[in-house]
Amino acid sequence: MSLFAAPSKEKVVRVTKFAVKDHEMVPEHVLLTPEEGDEVLKGFGIEAPKLPKIHVSDPAAREIGAKVGDIIKVLRRSTTAKQSIFYRLVID
Amino acid sequence: MTVPKRIGKIRFGLISPQEFRKMSVVKIITADTYDDDGFPIEMGLMDPRLGVIDPGLRCRSCGGRPGECPGHFGHIDLIAPVIHVGFAKLIRKVLRAICRDCSRLMLKENEKNMYLEQIQTLERLGQMTDDVVNKVFSEARKNKNCPYCGAPQQEIKFERPLSYIEEGHKLTPSDIRDRFEKIPDDDIQVMGMNPATARPEWLILTVLPVPPVTMRPSITLESGQRSEDDLTHKLVDIIRINQRFQENREAGAPQLIIEDLWELLQYHITTFLDNTVSGVPPARHRSGRPLKTLSQRLKGKEGRFRGSLSGKRVNFSARTVISPDPNLSINEVGVPMDVAMELSVPMLANARNKEQIKTFVRRGPDRHPGVNYVTRPDQRRIKVTDKNCEEVAEQIDIGWGVDRQLADGDIVLFNRQPSLHRMSIMSHRVKVMPYKTFRLNPAVCPPYNADFDGDEMNMHVPQKEEARAEAEILMRVQENILSPRFGGPIIGGIHDYVTGSFLLTHGTKPIDRQGVMELLKKFEVSELPAPAGVTDKKPYWTGKQVFSLILPRGLDLNFKADFCYNCDVCKGEDCENDAFVVIRDGQLLKGTIDAEAVGAFKGKITDRIIKEFSPSVASEFLDRMTRLALRGIMYAGFSFGIDDEDIPKEAAEQIDDTTRTAREKVQQLIEAYNAGELEPLPGRTLDETLEMRIMQTLGKARDTAGKIAGRYLGLDNSGVVMAVSGARGSMLNLTQMAACVGQQSVRGERIKRGYAGRTLPHFRRGDLGAEAHGFVESSYKDGLNPTEFFFHAIGGREGLVDTAIRTSQSGYLQRRLVNALQDLEVKYDGTVRETRGMIVQFQYGEDGVDASRRDYASTDNVLRIIKNVLKKESA
Known about the structure:
The complex is a heterodimer of chains A (about 90) and B (about 900).
Chain A (H helix, E strand, L loop, with lengths): L27 E4 L2 H11 L8 E3 L3 H5 L7 E8 L3 E10 L1
Parallel strand pairs in A: 2-4
Antiparallel strand pairs in A: 1-3, 3-4
Chain B lengths: L16 H7 L50 E10 L4 H10 L11 H16 L5 H12 L14 E4 L3 E4 L2 E2 L2 H9 L3 H6 L13 E7 L8 E2 L5 E2 L2 H21 L4 H19 L20 H5 L5 H6 L7 E8 L7 E5 H6 L1 E5 L5 H10 L7 E5 L5 E3 L5 H7 L5 E5 L5 E5 L9 E9 L4 E3 L4 H4 L7 E5 L4 H10 L21 H10 L4 E3 H7 L13 E3 L2 E5 H6 L8 E4 L19 E5 L2 E4 L4 H4 L5 H9 L2 H22 L12 H26 L11 H27 L5 H8 L5 H8 L3 E2 L1 E2 L2 E2 L24 E2 L9 H36 L3 E2 L5 E2 L5 E3 L17 H16 L1
């Protein structure tokens, strides 16, 4: 599988703003519910500040409506593991 | 134990004169150090309040003994202010940015606010403010008149190293300090300084801190004479001049003398801080040696940071030249007797080992495994000598400790610099040997990247049980056979071991009983396998059978050997070249053992053994392999000489033909080019096309020449054996030696540089032919003609420069990577975290795989597992 899939045939013309999550290079961001977030933290045995961070102002975070303190699950394509899961704490 | 503390923040600033005085324990007024009785003079440079260095005394400030007392600062009140060299440039910037009259930063109020806001934003984000601050200074300097008081400004010239000249007058440090004192706090902030921690007038010294004696200890020479530290000498100078200055000023000496003394004080303080300022002659010792002052102590490779903090010297270590010994195990290291008698391992006497320790002590320090020191239960250390050893041995009881000399079986760490990967430090078992070099099995050279042309290596002796356990379990050579870089064995046969294995196992040459015995001399083999056949009523064996004796039972393996010709259709087990290896239940049935089977970086057999059996079995295999391969190469006999590069006459003629036709073809191409008949290749200019076609033609000519030579050089040629088995060299090397060296190149192109329009005066201008641009038609054996030789030197030089650049660049890259990654740790849950516990990766390498513990994820493994299961069921 190529990292660069063919561009979608849909013609989306957005001059002012485009959805970054539609971009080929942007991995899928999933907003976790507080319960799911706690589950993740418990799994790693850590407090939330030990997670990598993401700004609320990050376009990907903004698009899924994340608030400060939320945890975002990022599903990245990986050349070694096909898919790898990262978690990020939303900060100001 | 000190309590671990977390650093909240670090703030950098300048120290104010008040602070210098506050932290000072004594004001120094006399330049003298000791009185006639050898006691330190009060308020002198060796004042007892500054700390203690003499054993037995206590510090007058803190009451600590030497070692406990960290030392305390004193101070010297300078008669006149002096510029701090380190801040000369900053002083210049500030001086030019402020008004000479009212001392205000020469920017309008709104500009100040704008810059201040920018600085504050950057500081909040934790980013560098340098750019904004520099902008502030350069903008403020542009004003010809002060925007506040309207005073006209004068150009301030800076003369290295320390003079500031305004209107032809030199500004004294006092003048500058006066100006700086008047700068308002708000303006200081715009200049990127915090007025609470760094006021500009503090850039100019009025008080000089005197470092504690602990950082400038004096040493007593054998003659009883005291020799003072360089810093003390410098301080003496400063105090003397300071005093003279004061006396002269009080006596109302003429301005000229005062200025001279001021200058002198400035000089001494400058060199006290930094003795390598350009424009200032370095202060020298009486002997002419430049003094080592404050900044010299910190700077550079030998300085405090790189020399004493990032790296230091260690005890319990040894370094000497290395040499090979194939009879050692890969897990062993041969240690010279001299080294073994110097290094020691601590042992604590208990009920079980008491008697054994006594026998060690009784041997004294001069008979090998002896004892160098004994530690009594009250921690007093006694040196064991030839004379007192009997007596000390009798006293040994439970609770006593001894430093036993290094002996066979001890675990040590072995290292060769540069330590580029973790296999650069591995642990070995000691084998004490005569002579003066460290000995190691040549199979472990690849991970250390060692050879025996004079390489030296270091050895370290772990002193604690914990360290020894860690070294033995994690760092043993056998645990590091598989490289975490590519998951294959990095340890294995090199050079003659590969050749030896090849010669032994290639084909089915019969070896008689005597030969087999000779090959197996070094092994504990009690039974020979059934002979492969009988000739002249004498039984014979094959090399494959002999090699099978060192393979573990139960090993099944098929693979293509290194010298496989990559035929279009692989015949597999029926390979005619004996290049397909078949091992069944530890019996080498078909194929030849070469680099692919046992070599370093390849080693299919080694790899399989580790994964199927264990590292111990693999190390055992490598030990036996190195010994057998050497026997193999000696049994066959192996040498390489100049006549191995000989090729028959007809071959030489064919090669001549090839090169001649190639040259003619190049001429044709050039003619076509000149006639404008050459068709350019897509995306290339005509010139480029011609170059490419010529390179292609000449490249092909060399390959053809190589093939012709190769046809006449068979496996009876030792060069071919080495190239084909993967031991050393390649067929290309042989081609260059025997047939044709080929095109020399610079940056992948034919050689073009030289004189106008030609490479050398031997050729016509504009000659595009093969010879004129570095095609070497001769072979190394035949010898190169002068022009060829010169072109060869050009090409060779490029190679040398490339390697030099590559090593320095990759070294720096490695250093940066190591600095960035050194504190990361893979935790037991597979996450990668740094020291604070912050997660960097949720799964190591995103997939959590350790390359050295996986098995290439190939489908063969499934087949093998099925086979193994079926075999067990049928059994």
